[in-house]
Amino acid sequence: MTTITTKLADNDEDLLGILDLQRENHLANVSSETKSTEGFVTVKHTLSILRQMNEKASQVIAIDNNKVIGYALVMVKEFKYLLPVLTPMFEAFEDITYKNKKLSDCNYYVMGQVCVAKSHRGMGVFQSLYNKQKKSYSHKYDICLTEVSSSNPRSIRAHEKVGFKTIHTFKDITDEWHIIGWDWNL
User: Where are the domains of the chain?
Assistant: First the structure.
C-alpha cells in the first residue's frame, strides 16, 4: 500500500531526492514522445542552490517509502538572479500589470519548478504539493507565480486545474511561455 506524505524539505537527503527526480525528468533526458505526453522540467538546480532556496523558504516535497516522488520549488524575489535562465521571467514582472498593479510590486513568490515521478502521476500528488504550498505560504504571499512552456500542455492543464490562470504570454529565443498566477489574496 502506498502512503504518500507531503512535507517541507528539512535536510540534504530531501534536497538530493529533488535533484534525482529532476534529473530523471529533465528535457535533456526524456524522449520527444515523453515530452509531449508526460511533460518535462527545464531548469537544472544544484545542491548548493537548493540549500540557498530552502534556507529562505522550505521546498515542498512528496515522499513515498522514504523517497522523494514529487516536489514544488519555492523561489522568493531575492533569488531573481540565482538562476540566469529564470531572470527574464522575473524581469518581465516589471512590465506586466495584474489587477492594476505591476506584478513586481505584488507580494509574490515564484513556484520554481514542479515535478511528480512517473510512477505516481494521476494519484493526486501534484494537487497535494500545491495544497501544501498554499497552506504553508498563503499567509505570507498574495500570489504564486510561475511560467510554463507552451510546448508542455500537460503542465498547463495541471496548473489550470489547481487554480492558476494565464496572466501573460511571451516568446524568447527558446520557446513561448505562459506566465501564470494562483491568486490567493489580491
Answer: 4-183
Give the tens place of pLDDT for each residue, 10-47. 999 999 999 999 999 998 898 888 877 787 888 899 99
Angle 88-90-94 from CA coordinates, rounded to 5°: 100
Q: In angstroms, rounded to a whole number, what is the distance separating the alpha carbons of residues 82 and 36? A: 29
- Domain 4-183: which topology? Aminopeptidase (3.40.630)
The three grid cell numbers given for residue 143, joined into one nine-digit string: 500570489
Q: How far apart are CA 53 and CA 62, in angstroms?
A: 17
The CA angle 44-28-147, to the nearest 5 degrees, is 55
Give pTM, 2 decimals: 0.90
Residues 136 and 108 sit within 8 Å (Cβ to Cβ): no
Specify the amino acid at residue 30.
V
